Amino acid sequence: MMPFVHLHVHSDHSPMRGVAPLEELCRLAKRHGAPALALTDTNGLYGAIRFIEQAKQQGLKPILGAELTTDDHRAVLLAKTSDGYANLCRLLSERHCDPSFDFVKTVARYRDGLIILTDDDAALQAWAHESRQDLYVELTPGPAMQPALSFSRRLGLPPVATNRVYFSRADDFATHRLLRAIALNTTLSRLPEEACCAPAQWLRPPALMEARFPHVPDALENTVCIAEACHGDWRFGETIFPAFRQLRAEEAFTWLKEKTYEGALSRYGSLSDEVRERIEKELTIIRQKGFAHYFLVVEEIVRRAPRTCGRGSVAASIVSYCLKITHVDPIKHHLFFERFLNPGRKDPPDIDIDFPWDERDEVLDGVFKQYGARQAAMVANHNTLGFRAAIRETAKVYGMPAEDIGRMSSRVMRQKDLLGFSAPPTNAQWLSRLSQTLKLKAPWPEILGQALRAHNHFRHLSMHCGGVVIVPEEIRRYVPVEFTAKGLPVIQWEKDQTEDAGLVKIDILGNRSLAVIRDALIAIARHTGRNIDYEMWDPVNDPATQESIRRGDTIGCFYIESPATRLLLRKLWNGMPPRRRAVADVFEYLVMVSSLVRPATNPFVEEFIRRAQEGSCPVWHDKLKGILDETHGIMTYQEDVSKVAMALADFSIDDADQLRKVLSKKHKAKQLQDYRIQFFQGAAENGVPRETIEAMWKMIMSFAGYSFCKPHSASYAQVSFKSAYLRTHYPAEFIAAVISNQGGFYSTCAYVSEARRMGLAILLPDVNESDWAYRGEGERLRMGLMQVKTIPEALGKQIVKERTEHGPYRSFQDLLQRVAMEPAQARALVRAGCCDSIAGELTRPALLWRLYAGKEAGLSPLPVPDEYTAAQKRAHEIESFGFLASRHPLTLYRKPIERLRPVPASQMHRYVGRRITMVGWLVTEKAAETTHGQAMEFITLEDVTALYDATLFPDVYRRCCHLLAPNRPYVVRGVVEESFGVVTLAVLDLRMLESAKEEEHRPVADPETWYGEACEARPDQPPSSFLPR
């Protein structure tokens, strides 16, 4: 059999064209006995770094290339040399970024170091006229092969055989057609034949390729010659640092050292020996690793905004602390510098900096103004087809009606996690059971089967939330660049490939909580005259704030407001004996809690709480003495993985760090298996019992997916503490800032309810009193005009600006004369009650009558309608704001609640172990899985008295999940359970609370008093139940 190498291969990194995963292509090429494989995705190197990794694992020589295409031309370009690779990156960048891209001229300009394969005769003639070197005529089985062969002989250019591969197996053609139809937004029946490749374009073995080219054996031989000529020893990974002001390495280091000591004096005052030693230790490693430029570039970026939060492992660096990149003292909090940087670390660490969300774009603009698109670009996200999108798009190309698609996708998504598999199913098993459960009729089983095949396919690039790469020279020599819709340059790699390629990523991220703190501090200064210096302010020792955190009173507080975190905080502190509470550091435990709330830690959380309350720290093995004392023997931080691996299994510091890193990656199975073997062997050789090894590995695996290092959690905890301080001492200003900046964990409705529970009076929007944003002062929370749905920001701010500059509005007519607005916008303000204060004796309908009366000239006078009823006003309120703001929404359900006599949330603790009935407004929900993979859900509800948490275990979840929707009222029956002094409800059943028309003559003056009377629940008198016992 004649040897053969596939040189034209598209993977699933050819957006909506290629089907085959890189791993599968490399595995098949190896099975075919190929010595090498090329990757030539369409107009990109989207999977280049991952391809090199997969090819090397299979012992293949990786050949990097791309198929460059335009509407009129196409050619395969292979990197023969490293210079050729750089030219390929430049070519692809121009293809994406230059609207006037000239295919033939641009390839001619950058062809040095590239091998070109094409059957494009016009392009070949133009290039051959300049030089015939490394030009080949591509022959592919099919009608075009004979004309291409004739052209090759006529021009005297060598032929090369390819199969223009788009999938690894012949039966993947249907998936290719599906992806093309989705990309072209057409149905399969209308999909043009020329929009797809041929069914035969799969990764054929050499014998089949030889059979297709019996008359051109040199075309097969040339594939091997080309493969041998191409560079294959790719060594991506050497760190490529940004350059600071074109300084030489020593100049940059000297500058960094001076700025570090200058900052140290600002941070510490006089410098202790410990501080000096730590600074010198870090500077030595930074100098050895060449990171001086990097620190100086980041410090310069940070100085663009006064309020930042440097986070991630960099917060373990005293150099970054002195440069004010980070704000947590690494000495005081015992932070592990080697997690950020150590002499053996091969990959570049990245620095994450949070800015207030509404200042972040300005910071990015400054970076690009300074470095330009030549040296800087954003990191990409590779957007793939999610499962719901795959269902919808597949159904569309099958021509299904939109209504049927919406209904079926909702049914499937609701059921997909409820099928009760004891182990992860294959696609066929999953589809079979789903078809039975939903009683699917044709063509839906086929549609869902195809959707499963389309799921997770690469669809398009988007911009990473904040990752920026800055290089010392031209970025287009390292990686192809495209432009986003906003005009920002973005590289073709996502963050993992970016890091693996050695490009140093700086994360410039938007953080809404920093804007919340900023806005609250401005409001406090305006209302009280107290100016709090963000940089110097450290509230961690404030007793009232500490107590708020212990109670879990943290709704609105950065990173610690979720139900899971508040529940953990309450459990941790509720049962802690007084002697332990007196010595336990609230900040340090908050840091631990921030790291413990992650998906895979559930088995260890309760043990952590028990040990923390006792102050105990059982040692797993003598080799771990002192390693996990701080966290009571429970691995909590990412660096604990490294420490345990080194202590228990003799990992080198580099291997231990790589293990920690692999746990966070998507493509980790093979590497993780190798590290598992190394860990078990190393620990066994050290005499560690098998059960201890198993337990420690299980704990290590709890870090899979996402987890945090201690420096990151400490940085977050510092912001959390500042948020909690503001909530505790300035609740109105704080909650106003939380709602105004949007994007919190809860809905605006939930935050308004929380404000009401905190004792704040809720004042509705008013054109003479409201700002655009919410405003808090003292014990009042004034809603902003931003809450009125149909009022755009420009109009709302103009209303405020006009009032500020020229005085309050005297009447509705005065408002209309001074501020230009559409009638529909004026109507929205009236119906929302925003004009009540300027209406005089006119009702809202009368205001609207005046608004429209002038537009009905020549018609009969319009009759003035009656005043709105209270029920109508409430309906308008919900329509205008999205929720009922003037009172708690449960007060609308007075009659059914009086009939039910539910237990108030504030009284749950009196019913531990008993079945009770409760009502609640659904605030938030979080889907979860049991250890056996069964779906369940945690929900948070509120009544007038308090929030409460409830759990729907798998059986109940399967029965009731279809009823759940946010901002709806429910009747819930369940058993009150207690854990570490905290009560939750284990739900037995759940249904919607039935509405009843409220009697207009029975207004609710004091909702909480009414609610308590309506419940009439006592420990000795169980509440009524709507279900049989």
Account of the protein in words:
With 1029 residues, the chain is α/β, with parallel strands linked by helices. The chain folds into six domains: 22-229, TIM Barrel (Alpha-Beta Barrel); 249-380 and 462-512, glyoxalase-related enzyme like fold (2-Layer Sandwich), CATH 3.30.1900.20; 386-455, no CATH class; 514-717, no CATH class; 760-881, Orthogonal Bundle (DNA polymerase, domain 1), CATH 1.10.150; 889-1015, OB fold (Dihydrolipoamide Acetyltransferase, E2P) (Beta Barrel), CATH 2.40.50.140. The chain contains 40 helices and 21 strands. The protein has a six-stranded mixed beta sheet with strand order 1-2-3-4-5-6. Strands 7-8-13-10-9 form a five-stranded mixed beta sheet. A hairpin with a 4-residue loop joins strand 2 and strand 3. The radius of gyration is 33 Å and the shape is globular. The relative contact order is 0.06. Keywords: DNA replication, DNA-directed DNA polymerase, Nucleotidyltransferase, Transferase. Its EC number is 2.7.7.7.
